[in-house]
Each structure stands twice: as structure tokens, then as C-alpha cells.
Design brief:
By secondary structure, the chain is of the alpha+beta class. It is built from 2 helices and 4 strands, in the order βαβββα. The longest helix is centred in the N-terminal third of the chain and has 14 residues. It binds FE2/S2 (inorganic) cluster. FE2/S2 (inorganic) cluster binds next to loops.
């Protein structure tokens, strides 16, 4: 099973960029929902800060790759980058 971590960190001061301030909490819920709807073998979890705050929302894939600037509009692209489908066709 692939694991995907979505940074949901809020930074201490509102003028500091953070993934949560850019909508990562709703992205986390949306990704969980899409993975479930598409019956994908992917576990989506929240994460603490990944150190790339200015590039968020950030996702880390269990193989170590990062996806920066993630958002719900890119869900199909995100799932392909995550390799969520393995050998399955992407259409469900
Ligand atoms: S707040 Fe998400 S990487 Fe720092």
C-alpha cells in the first residue's frame, strides 16, 4: 500500500506561509474521499511541517518524492504522480 502524507501544519504567525493556510486540510479530506471512491490502495494521512512551507500545500509520497502546490483541481494529476493506480486503468 502506498502512503501519502499531506502537510496540515499551521505556522505560528499568520504572515508566515503554511500549507494549512493554503487549504491543505480540505485537500486532505478530499484526497481521502477520492481514494475511497476510486477504491485505490493508498493511505492518506496528515503530516507535520515538511520544511517547504512557501511551496505548499505539500504532499510527500512514501517513496520520498514531494508534490508542491497541490490542490483539489489537480486530483487526477496527483493520483498519477502518487502512482495510485499501479497497473490499473485510470478510468473508474
Ligand atoms: S507548513 Fe507545510 S511544509 Fe511547512
Amino acid at each position: 500500500m502506498k502512503k501519502v502524507f499531506v502537510c496540515t501544519n499551521h505556522r505560528k504567525f499568520s504572515d508566515q506561509p503554511s500549507c494549512a493556510a493554503r487549504g491543505s486540510e480540505s485537500l486532505l479530506d478530499f484526497l481521502k474521499s477520492e481514494v475511497s471512491l476510486r477504491d485505490l490502495d493508498v493511505e492518506v494521512e496528515s503530516s507535520v511541517c515538511m520544511g517547504h512551507c512557501a511551496k505548499g500545500p505539500n504532499i510527500k509520497i512514501s517513496d520520498g518524492d514531494f508534490i508542491h502546490g497541490a490542490n483539489q483541481d489537480l486530483v487526477d494529476e496527483l493520483l498519477l504522480k502518487i502512482d495510485a493506480y499501479g497497473n490499473r486503468p485510470t478510468l473508474t
